[in-house]
Write a structure and sequence with these properties.
alpha+beta; three-stranded antiparallel beta sheet; 29% helix; 2 domains; 82 residues
Length: 82
């Protein structure tokens, strides 16, 4: 299996010599999970969520409630909530 690629809304990979191309909806159906919001999750421009919600997410993920501006939070910089 090679790495999965995500391009233009389609996940592409090869598994056991079979080419796979799935969009978020089909992948969600196969895995039995909701794909709602996936398009927003993979978007670079998160402005569709609104500045207030982005700030709240940043404060929670960075565990810095004093932040006044939303920003990127890298996984490596995150502290476990427990």
């Amino acid at each position: 299996m090679r790495a999965m690629l995500f391009t233009n809304g389609v996940v592409t990979s090869i598994v056991n010599d079979h080419d796979l191309q799935l969009d978020a909806k089909k992948l969600g159906e196969l895995l039995g999970v909701s794909s709602e919001g996936f398009d927003v999750y993979v978007r670079e421009d998160k402005s569709v969520l609104g500045e207030e919600w982005l700030l709240e997410l940043t404060q929670k993920l960075a565990q810095k409630p004093h932040l006044t501006v939303s920003q990127s939070v890298r996984k490596a910089k995150m502290i476990p909530l427990h």
